[in-house]
Amino acid sequence: MSSDRLAIIAASQQGITTGLRLKQELAACxxxxxxxxxxxxxxxxxRIGSITEWTAEEFHNWNALVYIGALGIxxxxxxxxxxxxxxxPAVINCDERxxxxxxxxxxxYGGANDLARRVSRMLGAQPVITTSSDVQGLxxxxxxxxxxxxxxxxRAGLGGxxxxxxxxxxxxxxxxxxxxxxxxxxxxxxxxTCPDFVTVAYxxxxxxxxxxxxxxxxxPFLYEPPVQAVFYRPRxxxxxLGSEKGIDPERFVGxxxxxxxxxxxxxxxxxxxxxxxxxxxxxxxxxxxxxxxIPLQGFEAQALEAVGGVPNPSETVFRxxxxxxxxxxxxxxxxxxEEWIVEKQKAALEDVEKGQPRHFTFAVxxxxxxxxxxxxxxxxxxxxxxxxxxxxxxxxxxxxDLVLYAGSLVPEKLTEYxxxxxxxxxxxxxxxxxxxxxxxxxxxRGKQVVRLHTxxxxxxxxxxEQIAWFEAHGMPYDIVPGVSSFQAAAAALNSQFTVxxxxxxxxxxxxxxxxxxxxxxxxxxLARARATMCIFLxxxxxxxxxxxxxxxxPPTTPVAVCYRLSWDDQQVWRGELxxxxxxxxxxxxxxxxLLVVGEAIGARQNRSKLYxxxxxxxxxxxxxxx
Length: 626
Description:
This protein is an alpha/beta fold. The strands form 5 sheets. A 7-stranded mixed sheet has the order 3-2-1-4-5-6-7, sandwiched between helices. The longest helix is centred in the first third of the chain and has 16 residues, at 13-28. The protein is globular.
């Protein structure tokens, strides 16, 4: 739902009070324009003649409308001006005391359902959503993938004539197949939330059209199933172009789109176009980019020539412009890998006079991040409590075929999120090479791998060598951040590690132990800032740590020795810097210990400016200005 312009229409004085509260909350959350209207006089609202008259004039000038008052008033006002679900704004209705918020119009397409939930949260109200798919927790077929830029196309078949028929079949739990030709974050989510009456397929050949009533297909390919289908077109096709100079733009656009259809590809899935840089101003290419609403890129000849494995190099082109390939090399550069779903196609415009430019070439590649192949996610497990893994991290664990976790640091309980049939292995007894081979074996089979590290994987996570190996072997990966133990320490100590006007810096470091610390990062030098210092992997050398810190910090500086933060057996000892080494010895702990030093520990003085009534910012004026 677009939140650019939102109107609140209050029927009563109490409604104005609720409307003012809502207006303030919406504005603070970034809604560009929020206006309050009412037939009642009020200093904070714009007075109107009647709600019905205002609605007749203004209804389609707003992205969303919130009526505050009796539902009947709202219904009678909007009924005469309704046009289409694809053009009518979102409409919700709220009682004047803000107890119930009901989605009235354009629940999915206009975003009224989401708006009703949002407004309910702001008012502490009960949302009232009656759309069948929302009530059942099913996907909204009419807007599925819209936020990700997917186009949607309905194709009639047995049992259906319109998208409404497809939605009816879906909410009535008729046998449905979900075809996923590509993979991204949303398709992963669809797999995780798949209803029990939906079967997932990864190739069209595997779709059992004889036993299903509806096909939902996330694909750039054109199919003609006998059953009704909804095709979702993700933007995943990268097209490289070449041509003679000055070919007719109109004929070129028509010819290209026709030939793309012949290759059973949807133009709605084209995400980018590219050619050699000196052809960027070719009118035909510019016209195609305009027609598709996507950018046209130009690559330097050197970059195009560097693409390896081009299947159809041309000596003729090389003699003319010094490049063996334009269209194939350009599509590969756009896609991020050297594979093609359509190799170079030579084409000629029809009905062009002899001697006039008419020839062009194109090639198509699928974006690398859309390929349905194995993938590795390096996931931060958090400090220990399974509840502190991120939502994204848990989702990946649940979907993974292999979970390889740091067994000495990550609690086994966290791996219980893995699905039945997944392989869960501890890496504690494995060499790095053994870990690599195991992950590679799964990745090459198109499986999903989670490499689970403690805390945040980018802080002392030893992932650099893994990343280098993944890149050297062409294995796709991503990194999912986690909650670090230094953040868990702040929570355990009930402290804010940055205190206004006292300390605004947090230093994450380690002492000089088995792994040498660069001379410029020795504790004695870092201590000069007297920041909040979180010292990892250093309890074994507590005496040395204390000596170096005492060169700059007063001996009475608060310290904490934190053991297995957020685990069931978490322990925390507090004291002063002068007794740090003794505290560590008395604790008897040297592994999974974090040392925290600084006056921010337990500090309760010094107020933040953020909520000071005399401090202004983008969402609040100071009390002096009111």
